[in-house]
Amino acid sequence: MSTTWHVLGAGSLGTLWATRLARAGLPVKLILRDAARLQAYQATGGLTLVEQGEARVYAVPGETFDSSGPIKRLLVACKAYDAQTAVAQLASRLTPDAELVLLQNGLGSQEAVAAQVPQARCIFASSTEGAFRDGDWRVVFAGHGYTWLGDASHPVAPFWLDDLSTAGIPHEWTPDILTRLWRKLALNCAINPLTVLHDCRNGGLQQHHCEVATLCAELTELLEQCGQPAAAQDLQQEVERVIHATAANYSSMYQDVANQRRTEISYLLGHACAVASRHQLVLPHLAQLQQRLIAHLHTRGLPSD
Ligand code: NAD
Ligand code: KPL
Predict the structure, then answer these.
(1) Is the pTM of this model over 0.90?
(2) Please, are residues 293 and 215 in contact by the beta-carbon 8 Å criterion?
């Protein structure tokens, strides 16, 4: 009998994972905020996955935090700023051998969650898959990608990665998950805030080549100083490649701001600046970028944490 996947967060990635696991016949349960959300969900009949224009409904069972029953495998699919509070509400249901998969972008939230549930194994993930919601309980699979998973403190892969293969979720186990997360964080720091401040698509940053290069130099210094030299390698070339390859796209932070949604700034640029200051590194352009972004978020009435 397979272990049930509890999925916390019925948003884009949570739905993308829950529907594919359910489609493969694996046991999945969705954890919702409260009874009202559960009732609304149950009235809809399930989660809808839209793939290549075709919509299919999967009747994944739902429950709330205070449902009874132990949780052995938990996919945490909320935003970085919600992860700690959401997991705290479930801590008492986690089994002594529980495993959590943390799908959050950026860094900082994973350590906070892990510290909260010391008995559990926390597996960090970094995903390049893309999905967005086009309605309540509906997600559009927008970009095929890969999910890297790893546990910096314990390099052995869990046996349940087979479930991901069965569900057709492209993935790879890596002992260097922190390097991957730092590399992605650096890319996001070099691209996303500038797209917000210059009000442009990723490709628009080709007009701001010097500003991008200066940020890449400071991010490279940060990565080298904080023990992540592999994540620093050829950073500027990689940033330029991504700007070119995704020229027509709006960055995720741009989309958050445009839609008046809270950003994950504290776990991206905020985390980079906090680590720089912990290492007593002076990185003036990164610090100035953070100040400009915070001021911009305030003018839009958005939180800056
Ligand atoms: P999302 O906002 O679509 O979904 C998050 C869900 O979590 C929401 O439905 C929210 O209501 C729910 N949630 C928050 N707190 C909760 C709580 N206490 N109890 C129950 N539910 C709660 O976010 P997303 O786009 O799926 O992103 C999740 C993470 O994955 C982020 O860190 C994001 O950066 C990362 N990511 C997303 C994508 C993507 O394409 N969407 C790609 C790569 C990485
Ligand atoms: O991951 C991204 C995002 O928009 O969040 C890219 C496309 C790499 C830009 O930083």
Answers:
(1) yes
(2) no
127 in any annotated domain: yes
As a whole-number percent, the residues of the chain with pLDDT over 90 amount to: 98
Distance from residue 301's CA to the centre of ligand 2 (Å): 23
Angle at which helices 269-278 and 284-299 cross, to 10°: 140
Residue nearest to atom 5 of ligand 2 (CA): 252
Catalytic residues: 184
Count CB neighbours of 72 within 10 A.
17
Summarised one tens digit per residue, pLDDT across range 110-126 is: 999 999 999 999 999 99
Domain of 276 in residue numbering reads as: 179-299
Which ligand 1 atom is the nearest neighbour of the CA of 14? 26
Contact 239, 187 (CB under 8 A): yes
The structural domain count of the chain equals: 2
Of the candidates 121, 113, 135, 133, the residue with the CA atom closest to the CA atom of residue 71: 121
